[in-house]
Specification:
Elements (H helix, E strand, L loop, with lengths): L5 H10 L2 E5 L5 H11 L4 E6 L2 H11 L7 E3 L7 H12 L6 H7 L3 H10 L5 E4 L5 H12 L9 E9 L5 E7 L9 H17 L5 E5 L10 H16 L4 E6 L1 H5 L1 H7 L11 E3 L3 H14 L3 E8 L5 E3 L6 H15 L3
Bound molecules: coenzyme A.
Length: about 325
C-alpha cells in the first residue's frame, strides 16, 4: 500500500475505534478487506447480508470474517424504528410505510440508515452497485453538510517516485456532479484542497480548461474564469490559478510562456475539472497510463462519512478506502 498518511490515519483510529458498514457483504473483495480489518481492532466491519450467505461466501473465498457483525435487513430487530425514521425524513417526498419497507430491503438504503441511526460510524459501498446507486441514498438521507452548497468528490492519486517520496495529487470532481455550476466548481476546488492537506499535499489549485488566461473564448471557458474568481473570494489565502490548460498547470516551462509569474502554474497539485466528463476521463488516464494509484471518490460535503468504490476495485483498495472513510469521520 502506498504510504501517504495511512499510518497516521490508523493511529487516529486506534485512539478512537470505529465501525464501517459494507453494503455488499458477500463480495469476495469486501470479505478480504473485512478479514484484514478483523486482524486488528481499530475498525470493525458490519456486513449486510444473510449470515449463512456471508459465512459460506467467506469460506469459499478463503477469508476468515469471524467477529464481523452481520446484519440481515429481513431480520433486523430495529426495522420498525428504521422505517419510521425514513418515513419522517422523506415524508415531504411522498415516502410512506410501504415504500420505506420496500427501500430498506435494499442494502444501499438499509446501510445508509444504519449510519443515520448511529448504529455505524461510516459506510463503504459500490463494489457491485453503481456510483449513482451508492450515492443517491446518502444524498437523500444524510444530506449536505451545513455550509456546503452541494456534495462533490475528490480522488487522491499516488505514485511512488524514484527518490522514495510519493507524488500525491488531488483531482475533483470526477464522480458526482454531471453539469456543475461555477459556484459548485469553486467549492469543489476549495474542499479538494482541504482533502488534499489530509494526505500531505500543500495545495496549489488549478482550475482547468482548454484555454489559459483567455487564449480561447467560449461559455465553458467563462465558467472556469468565474469559478476561479469565486474560489479566490471564498479562500483568499489559498494558492489558486485559472483558467489553465493542463500543460500550463504542470509544466514549469509551459507555464513560463503561457502564465508567467504565477505561483501555481507549472506546480499545481490540486486539479479542478470543468465537468465530470473531463474529470472522470482525466483521473483514469493518470491511473491507467500514468501508473498512479487512485483512492476515491472521497465524497466532499456529505454530512457523514460514506464513500463509493470503483466496481473494478480489488480487496486491498477496499481495505484502504475503508480506513480513509472511517478516518475522515474524525476530521469533522
Ligand atoms: C449523484 C447523482 C446520482 C444524483 O442524481 P439523481 O439520483 O438523479 O439525483 P436527483 O436529482 O434525483 O436528486 C436526489 C436527491 O439528491 C440530491 N442531490 C443530487 N445531487 C446532489 C449533490 N451534488 N449534492 C447534494 N445533494 C444532491 C437532490 O437534491 C435530491 O434530494 P431530495 O430527494 O431530498 O430532493 C447523479 O448526479 C449522478 O448519477 N452522478 C454521476 C455518478 C456517476 O456515474 N459517476 C461516474 C462514476 S465514478
Amino acid at each position: 500500500m502506498a504510504n501517504f498518511g495511512f499510518g497516521s490515519m490508523i493511529e487516529k483510529l486506534k485512539k478512537s475505534p470505529k465501525t464501517i458498514v459494507f453494503t455488499e457483504g458477500t463480495d469476495p473483495r469486501i470479505l478480504e478487506a473485512s478479514s484484514r480489518l478483523l486482524a486488528s481492532t481499530f475498525l470493525t466491519p458490519i456486513l449486510i447480508g444473510k449470515p449463512d450467505d456471508v459465512m459460506s461466501a467467506a469460506e469459499e473465498a478463503g477469508y476468515n470474517v469471524r467477529g464481523a457483525r452481520i446484519i440481515d435487513p429481513d431480520n433486523y430487530e430495529d426495522i420498525d424504528k428504521m422505517v419510521d425514521m425514513l418515513v419522517e425524513l422523506r415524508k415531504d417526498k411522498g415516502m410512506d410505510e410501504a415504500k420505506a419497507r420496500g427501500l430498506l430491503k435494499q442494502a444501499n438504503y438499509f446501510g445508509t440508515m444504519l449510519v443515520k441511526m448511529g448504529v455505524a460510524d461510516s459506510l463503504l459501498g459500490g463494489a457491485t452497485y453503481s456510483t449513482a446507486d451508492t450515492v443517491r441514498p446518502a444524498l437523500q438521507i444524510i444530506k449536505t453538510k451545513p455550509g456546503y452548497k452541494s456534495v462533490s468528490s475528490c480522488f487522491i492519486l499516488v505514485r511512488a517516485s524514484a527518490s522514495g517520496d510519493n507524488e500525491v495529487l488531488a483531482f475533483g470532481d470526477c464522480a458526482i456532479n454531471i453539469h456543475p455550476s461555477a459556484e459548485e466548481i469553486a467549492e469543489t476546488g476549495i474542499y479538494c484542497a482541504e482533502c488534499g492537506r489530509i494526505f500531505g499535499i500543500d495545495p496549489k489549485v488549478a482550475f482547468l480548461s482548454f484555454s489559459t488566461h483567455g487564449s480561447a473564448k467560449d461559455p465553458d471557458v467563462d465558467k472556469m474564469i468565474e469559478a476561479t474568481k469565486i474560489a479566490r473570494e471564498m479562500a483568499p489565502n489559498l494558492a489558486i490559478e485559472g483558467e489553465l490548460q493542463f500543460d500550463a498547470a504542470v509544466s514549469p516551462a509551459v507555464a513560463r510562456t503561457k502564465c508567467p509569474g504565477s505561483e501555481v502554474a507549472g506546480h499545481a497539485n490540486v486539479f479542478v475539472f470543468p465537468d465530470i466528463n473531463a474529470g472522470n476521463i482525466g483521473y483514469k488516464i493518470a491511473q491507467r497510463l500514468g501508473q498512479f494509484s487512485a483512492y476515491g471518490p472521497i465524497l466532499l460535503g456529505l454530512n457523514a462519512p460514506i464513500n463509493d468504490l470503483s466496481r473494478g476495485c480489488n480487496g486491498m483498495e477496499v481495505y484502504s478506502m475503508a480506513i480513509i472513510t472511517a478516518a475522515l469521520a474524525e476530521e469533522d
